[in-house]
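Table 4 source record.
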Amino acid sequence: MEVAAAISSFLTHIRVERGLSANTVSAYRRDLMKFSEFAQKRKLSLQAVSRDDLVDFLAGLYRQRLESKSVARHLVSLRNFLRFAQIQELIPADPSVNLESPKIRRSLPGYLRLEEVERLLAQPDAKTPFGLRDRAMVEVLYSAGLRVSELVGLRVSDLDTKVGCVRCIGKGDKERIVPIGKKALGMVERYLRDARPKLLGKATSSPTLFVNRRGGRLSRVGVWKILSSYGRRAGLRVALTPHMLRHSFATHLLERGADLRSVQLMLGHADISTTQIYTHVVEERLKQIYKAHHPRA
């Protein structure tokens, strides 16, 4: 069987039978298409793929200067694909079984300081419909710690202004309820009242909370570009991404005494070890403060 045909079957399986999100399926497709091209160049059938071929493929990724984290993700995609192929009896054995994962040096997530968050929030011109929308989006991202995919997927009905929370759909289509601050709620209410009707135009029936200039749903890339522009205008020390506001949300909560379990639930992390990396950020920050201010540091 050809590798490309088996990959197509696998992608259908994870989308239809396992119900993985469109973003996850897209990530698998990108990784596995690279392997399909590699196999095609070597004229390999699926049954002919060996452990040595996998090693050569991963080595090629390193030569393309991909980071260990990216190479490890490609290996995970391959393992899941080859396990599926073995279960479906497309191959007699899984050649990835004894393949070691690349060692990943876990880097600390970038985050904004409080004064940088304030500078960022001051950038959108709230007197215009787009500026008011953008200010509300930044407020929600920072106040609720949402992923950008969760933000663009929000509907007006997901916001509960009386209780002060927002309902979002996270990774694996898991639903969670996240508290949202009064300032963010106030800005969203202003946006709903003064800006959203103007942006919607004739598309008045759209359920989407944050809409683009055509009244449709904003894309993840669109939000990234908007935030990146405001980050440059604010003169931030680092290039701003939507995820950096999520990192800032978690870091600032922990700095002010929030417990790890609560932060895990708000972020929607399946494993608390994912949340624990933020404790290292706080520890590093405390070390910097100590070195800067203690007379015998």
